[in-house]
Amino acid sequence: MKRTISSILALAMIAALLAIFAGAANAQVTEPSGQIAVINGASTDPVTVTIGADSLSGVAYAADAVSTIVPEGNYDVVFTDSAGDSSVNTAVGGPSAQTLVSTNGALAILGYPVAMAPIDAGMAKVIVWNTTDAVVSLTIDGGAPVDVAPKAEGPTLMVADGAGVAIDIDGVPKNVATPAGSYTDVFAVNDGTTTAIALAIIPSITDLIASLTPATTTTTTTTAPPAGVTVPDVVGQTEDDATSAITDLGLVAATTEAADDKIAKGIVISQDPAGGTDTADGSKVNIVVSTGSEEPVTVPVPDVSGMSAADAQTALEDAGFTVTTQEQDSETVEAGLVIETNPSAGTEVAAGTEVKMIVSTGFGDIVVPDFAGMTVDDATKAAEDAGLTIKFVEDADHPDPEGVVVSQDPTGGTTVEEGTEVVAQLSPAIDDAWVILTLSPNRVLTVSGINFQPGSTVDLTVLETDKDTKETVQNDGSWSATADLSDVQNEAELLLVTGTGADGSAYEATFKIPAAGESTDEPTDEVPTEEESSGTPVWVWLVLGLLVVGIIALGIKMFAGGDDAPGTDGDDTPETDAETTETS
Question: Which of 234, 367, 349, 237 is nearest to 300 (CA)?
Answer without folding.
Answer: 349
